[in-house]
């Protein structure tokens, strides 16, 4: 069976006697770095190049079909019944 949660009055929380840290404006404390970043010389990134081409072609295809769809709505041509 499930046990009932313990009462919060059963064990009091210890009171902290530490004073809160006071930070002055304009200063920040950064955590220490855990590792050194690996150096990569600047150069051509093939994956980004191919991804850019795919992105541009996709956007052009979407624009083409949207324009084609909108032009078909403006058509005054009516089919024979």
UniProtKB/TrEMBL annotation:
Subcellular location: Membrane
Bias type Low complexity, positions: 24-38
Region (Disordered), start-end ranges: 1-39
Keywords assigned: Glycoprotein, Membrane, Signal, Transmembrane, Transmembrane helix
Pfam families assigned: MGC-24 (PF05283)
An annotated GO cellular component: cytoplasmic vesicle
Stretches that traverse the bilayer: 47-67
Membrane topology, record value: Single-pass type I membrane protein
Family assignment from sequence similarity: Belongs to the CD164 family.
Protein name per the record: CD164 sialomucin-like 2 protein
Organism field: Alligator mississippiensis (American alligator)
């Amino acid at each position: 069976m499930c046990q009932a949660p313990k009462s919060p009055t059963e064990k009091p929380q210890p009171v902290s006697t530490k004073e809160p840290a006071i930070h002055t404006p304009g200063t920040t404390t950064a955590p220490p770095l855990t590792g050194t970043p690996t150096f990569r010389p600047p150069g051509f990134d093939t994956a980004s190049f191919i991804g850019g081409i795919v992105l541009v072609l996709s956007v052009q295809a979407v624009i083409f079909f949207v324009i084609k769809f909108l032009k078909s709505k403006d058509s005054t041509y009516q089919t024979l019944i």
